[in-house]
Amino acid sequence: MRIKELLRSAGARAFNWVKGHKVRSAVILAGMWLFVEIVALPFGAVSRLRTVNPVETAFMREHAAQAREEGKPFKTTQRWISVRRIPKNVIDAVVVAEDGTFWSHGGFDWFEFRESIERNIKEGRPARGASTITQQLVKNLFLSSSKNPLRKLKEWILTWYVEQTLSKSRILELYLNVIEWGKGIYGIEAAAQHYFGKSAADLNREEAARLAAIIPSPRRFRADQESRYVLRRTRIILERMTARGL
Fold first, then answer.
1. Would you kindly state where each structural domain of the chain is located, as residue ranges?
2. Residue 218: strand, helix, or coil
3. CA 224 to CA 182: how far, in whole Å?
4. What is the third-level CATH fold of 42-243?
5. How large is the angle between the packed helices 188-196 and 168-178, nearest 10 degrees?
6. How far apart are alpha carbons 211 and 94 in whole angstroms?
7. Among the four residues 17, 143, 212, 244, which has the most C-beta atoms within 10 Å?
8. Would you tell me how many other CB atoms lie within 10 Å of the CB of residue 115?
9. Which of 98, 88, 117, 116 is CA-nearest to residue 181?
């Protein structure tokens, strides 16, 4: 009986405190919720990526769910290839196109981040992104295409952890094998087979640049078509590679 009275009394005091401190209570509850969200992040799954290749990504599940909602068929094509078998031209083209300072940064390109903010503010729209390869990998593997602030916070935390846990070579290997290169086409090997009828190990310099060119919009453009966008992006990537002596 005494215990019940104590619990009832404590509950009443807590309720009265919350009523009298609504803003502080909201802040505390939000902090507790945020703490739970962060603790629940897949740190263990990141550690396993040192030696285990992912079977499915968050983006694959998201794309499959979208197809089901639209009543459309969805087939996934993916063939894993070791980074050791991927030509240097392919690696150089992707890094030059998506994250020029990949080998030297710690997961974030702060210069690009500042430039992106300034341009987006100037144009009044999200005209320029600043996600590094590591950030893109984290989104693909564990998060979603959502742009809400909580998702972005999770992305930053996991990006930092991935950079602390995995080698740059492993990060790039995972990235090249899981990102989308067309509807249902995931990874450089499946993309090379789909667009050029050959293994990624046999891609030449221009084919590598073409594949890198469509990474930002893989469902809108094809690497094997002569669209103005693909031709322009391919030319820019090749020029950047040459300027860097690659």
1. 1-40, 42-243
2. coil
3. 12
4. Penicillin binding protein transpeptidase fold (1.10.3810)
5. 40
6. 8
7. 212
8. 13
9. 98
Assign 77 to helix, strand or coil.
strand
CB 139 within 8 A of CB 155: yes
Closest CA to 46 of 165, 212, 205: 165
The pTM (predicted TM-score) of the whole model is 0.84
Question: pLDDT tens digit string along 18-70?
Answer: 566 666 666 666 667 666 767 778 999 999 999 999 989 999 999 989 888 88
Could you please report the per-residue DSSP string of 52-64?
---S--HHHHHHH
What's the pLDDT tens digit per position in 90-129? 999 999 999 999 999 998 887 766 665 555 555 554 544 5
Alpha helices in 124-244 (DSSP H): 133-142, 149-165, 168-178, 188-196, 205-213, 228-243
Structure tokens that stand for 188 in this block = 């450089």
- DSSP, res 246: -
95 Cβ contact list (under 8 Å, min separation 6) = 102, 103, 133, 172
What is the DSSP code (8-state) at residue 1? -
Provide the b/e sequence for 198-222 (b: ≥16 CB within 10 Å). eebeebebebbbbbbbbbeebeebb
Strands (E) in 39-104, as ranges, are 77-78
